[in-house]
Amino acid sequence: AQMGSTAKPWILLDSNFIQEQDGPVWLDRVKMEVESTIDPNNWNNVYDGLQTISQAVRDSKNTVAVKVLDMIGTKNSYDFLVNKYRLSTLVEADIDYAPLGLGGFTNGVTNRDMATAYAAIANNGIYNKSKTYTKVCDSTGKVILDNATATQEVILSEDTCAVMTKLMQEV
Q1: Is the pLDDT of residue 18 over 60?
Q2: Contact 156, 13 (CB under 8 A)
Q3: What is the DSSP letter of 94?
Q4: Distance between CA atoms of 164 and 123, rounded to whole angstroms?
Q5: Summary mean pLDDT of the chain
Q6: What's the rounded Cα separation, in Å, for the pair 93 and 80?
Q7: Rounded CA gap, 65 and 42, in Å?
Q8: Looking at residue 37, what is its pLDDT?
Q9: What is the spatial distance between Cα 164 and Cα 160, in angstroms, rounded to a whole number?
Q10: Running DSSP on this structure, what letter comes out for residue 2?
Q11: For the whole model, what pTM was predicted?
């Protein structure tokens, strides 16, 4: 599945960027100055000038998302999505503004990967590897496959998750 605008919050979570940058205003403008094959436009072709990150997330501003991505760096953002969120379908061709800033990944993203990544925000920054089953038993009750061990890793600060949750509630 293509993520589209659902990828935008992840750009802002990279390196806890959102905690440091929500106060300043960002220019939402027509022409972006990035080296890429895209010229991002907003979904409604409306450009509102100065905005906070909160406003940009709420209004799904493509231009602001790409500008933030440009500051973070496409390689840094890609590494975060692959190494922290463990998005399994991303490929090196996705290290560009359209895939990372606008959610147009080459192979899309699986529903499982997307749900697991968003769950880390709800879990105060703790990534839990998703599972289809915890154990399989034979007809006598003997466990033949055990998948109960949890794989957890802190990938975001609790403060970042709180801010991001608040922003997403405003959408």
Answers
A1: no
A2: yes
A3: G
A4: 12
A5: 82
A6: 15
A7: 10
A8: 61
A9: 6
A10: -
A11: 0.80
